[in-house]
Structures are given as structure tokens and as C-alpha cells.
Amino acid sequence: MITEELTLASPATAKKISLNDTAQQKGNASRETEKEKVSDNYRKAIFTKRHHFTLAMTFLLLLGGAFSVYLLQPQFEEMNLSRMDTLGGMILLFLGVFLLLFRLSFLAYIARLFFRYKPVTSVKDEELPTSTVIVPAYNEGQLVYSTLLSLVNSDYPAEKLQLLAIDDGSKDDTWEWMKKAKEQLGDRVSIYQQPENQGKRHALYRGFNLATGEVFVTVDSDSIVEKDTLRNLVSPFVTNENCGAVAGNVRVLNNEKAIIPRMLNVSFVFSFEFIRSAQSVLGSVLCTPGALAAYRSKAVMNCLPEWINQTFMGQPTDIGEDRAMTNMILKQGFHVLFQRNAYVLTNIPEKFSSLHKMFTRWERSNVRENLMMSKFAFKPFRNGPKSGTRLLLLNQWMGMVTAYPLILIMLVLLISHPIMFISSTLLSILIFSSLPVFFYAKKYNISEAFWAYTYSIFYTFGLFWITPYAMATANRRGWLTRGLPEKK
Fold first, then answer.
1. Helix H or strand E encompassing 42
2. In this protein, which residues make up the domain named Glycosyltransferase 2-like (predicted)?
């Protein structure tokens, strides 16, 4: 029995995970308590003067933009009329209307799917498959210790759970914390050390080859799982023989003080609980996140040689291992689902310099894997309906194809009509960001929901360049954010 109380190893967070309960304590009541505990973490996030000031400035900008559009209405009408007198203006107007209608139609389609979604209820202990959890780690320090303890504290039958932790040649004390976890947990965890840093894909590859479970679960080493996460995550493999992979529900761990994590927390909830829920109804979740994902072992082994030897433009691929694995499992004809009730809390960057590197890595992977998916998505890759999956891919391509034209138009309007452009952009943010605000407010709490507005302003004016830059540099290698953790 584990009886100590573990303080998470991020000074920016004050969360604590009680490890007083053993993995044998089960039941629906305890699982409901865990879900409430996750929600409470967000309700209790502290608002400082800086947070209040940031939100106040957000509303000042948005309301100021809306009022400016009202005052500048004659100028907007004059500009639109002048555009209709030229061929270029007519084309621009037609494309704008088309893109708006496409986005609204796609959003309505996703909303309809969302209301059909229901997570799979956890199955009984005797029905649960044997599972291997693989935790690759690089320069995570004490966080990997926290991750391993949270996994052992899961209410998953110990005799059905194999836990592997793999140090990918860390330059800090990650290996020492792994050894400490091993000393405390004994046979519950096996630890391995790569001879040198080879990348997350190679660490996972070693884990897959050592795994003995019917289901492989991957968890990032800076993430904390809830007590019922593992059993909820793997239950779809029991109830659906066509299920090849399952995506977990990712929340932000370090969301209490730094503004960037607080903004991304709301964004993650919308991205996972709304978008991935809809994708799950189609059996086509496009990416199983590295923070928490589960795979049918047979599906992994079928594509493992292709996955570890994957290249892009003649170079070995060292990013996007999660999206690549998802694509290869979809290609085999399996369904990829999302479990809203399988929570994981994960650390994300708190500074802009690290954030834009993470987003660049994600977008480069997105470019590469959209190309790969296009090679099989329009073929009979599986039985049953495929139009929904193809529409998801077309939406991905729409964002990429329009990236350069939109950024060019933005720069032209910013130079020629700066006030009109900024005010109309702020009004658009106020309108379209209200959906994630309402979504988060309904599920959790309204005060945190307002960060969706701040995030939209931040992304529109500070990170708009990520997609076009990632497209232009999609062949570049490198994790970008794999350095030693900052000392605070």
C-alpha cells in the first residue's frame, strides 16, 4: 500500500495527488469522485490581479472592435461596393463567402455528431484486457516519478497491468527518479535506459517490443492520470472488436498561475471534448495524443516496422509519432475512438518561446500526416461509411490550402485599412470564440471560460504564422522543445 502524499514536481503547480488509496479500491462512486476532483482543479485556479487585468483588456479590445465596426459601417459599405466593381474584388468576395459557408456547415456537422457521442462505460475487472503502459521520458526529472506513481495508483487489476518506463538518454536526473520509483514500487514497474538519446519514437519502439499486453497504452512522462483513467481508456477494445486505438481526454496540469496554460486549458477542453467526440462517432479520431493513448497490440505490431522506419522527403521522421501511428491504424481499417471519461493532466509550456516551438512541431506533423492520410482515405480502406472521415481530412486540407492566401490578404488589409481590419477581426473573434466559451462554461465554470477569448486574440495576432511556416519547413527535423527543464 502506498501511503505517502505526492506533491507534483512542477513548482508552478500546487496540485497534490493523494496516494492513500490502493489500486484495489473500485466502484462507480469512487470514479465519480475522481471526475469531480478533476473539475475542482479548474474551479479552484487562482485569479490574480494580472489575470483580472488580462481579461479586462480582452473585453476592452473585443468590445472596442465591435463598436468600431459599428462606427465604421459607412466605410465598410463603401469598400465592399468598390470591390464589386472589379473582377479581383468579386473573386475575393466569392471566396470569402464560400469559406465562411464551408466553416459554418462543417461546424454544424461536427455539432450534430457531438450530440450523438457517448463514452464507453468501463467494463468489469474480469473483462478488462491485459495492458502494457509505456512511459518514455527525456529530461523530465521528478515529474516521471509522479507519473509512475499515478499509474500504479490506478484501479486497474495489478495482475493485468505491465508498466514500462524508458529513459531516452536524459541529461538530468530523470534516471535517478526512475530508480527511486522502482525502489518504491518494486515489481509493479520495470525501468530501462537507452544508451543514448534517440528520440521518443525509438523509446516507444523499445517499449512496444517489450510489451506483453493485449493493449498498449502510452503516457507522457510529464502527465498524471486519474484513478479510473486506464480502465476507461481500454474498455472500448472490449466492447468494439473494430476498435484499433483510443485517444484519452487531455487537460492542462499547470493551469493555476501562468496565463498561457490557462488559455490552452479551455482550448484543450473544446478540442478534445467537442471536436474529438464528434470524430469518435465517425470512428476516425485523427490523432491519438502522446499524453494518453491506447492501441490494440495487433494493430501496432502490424505497422511497427513501417512506423519506426518512416521517412519524409528522404529523411528519418523524428516527430509526429502519435499522428503517424493513428494514420497507420486507420489505414488498416480499424476505428479510432475517443474516451471523454479517460482523463490525463499534462504539463504544457508556460512561455511563448516554448509554445510556438511546440505548435510548429505539431503543425509540421500535421502537414506530413495529412499527405500520408490522403494516400488511403479516398480508397476503400475499411468497411462501412467513409465519407465522414474524408470530410475531416478535407477540412484539414482547407486550413492548409488557404493559409498563404489568407496571410497575404491579412497583410494587404493591415497596410491599406488597418483600423477596419483590426476592428473586424476583433468582432469576428468575439462572435466565433463564443462557442468554446459557452461550451466550457456549461461543462465547468464561466470565469475560466473567458480565457477562450484571450486565446483567440493571442493566436490570431501572435501565432498566425505557425501554419504557413510549418508548411514551408515541413521537411525539417527536430523536437525543438527537448531541452533541460528550466530551474525556477
1. helix 28-43
2. 132-300
Say if residues 147 and 215 touch (Cβ distance below 8 Å): no
Is residue 187's pLDDT more than 60?
A: yes
User: 23-43 pLDDT, tens per residue?
Assistant: 334 444 443 444 445 544 444
Integer angstrom CA distances of residue 419 from 68, 69, 424: 8, 9, 8
Residue 55 Cα to chain centre, angstroms = 24
Range of the domain at 210: 125-352
Please give the pLDDT value at position 223.
96
Number of domains into which the chain is organized:
1
Question: By the 8 A CB rule, do 245 and 295 touch?
Answer: yes
Looking up cell 523499445 gives 206
Q: Which three cell numbers stand for residue 26?
A: 473500485
**Residue whose entry in the numeric block shows the C-alpha cell 521537411:** 475
Please indicate, yes or no, whether the overall pTM of this predicted structure exceeds 0.85: yes
Distance between the two ends of the chain, CA-based, in angstroms?
33
Contact 224, 19 (CB under 8 A): no
Domain harbouring 278, CATH code? 3.90.550.10
The reply to whether 29 falls in a domain is no
Residue 39 has φ and ψ, to the nearest 5°, of -65, -40
CA 338-343-345 angle, to 5 degrees, is 125
The answer to whether residue 191 scores a pLDDT higher than 60 is yes
Amino acid identity of residue 480, one-letter, is L
Residue 1 scores a pLDDT above 80: no
**Which distant-in-sequence residues (6+ apart) come within 8 Å of 350 by Cβ?**
12, 254, 258, 260, 261
In the prediction, which pLDDT does 483 show?
56
Cα–Cα dist 71/65, whole Å: 10
Give the CA dihedral 473, 328, 189, 20, nearest 10 degrees.
90
Is residue 256 situated within a structural domain? yes
User: Closest by alpha carbon to 361, among 482, 273, 451, 449?
Assistant: 482
pLDDT band of residue 484 (cuts 50, 70, 90) is low
Beta carbons within 10 angstroms of residue 407's beta carbon: 15
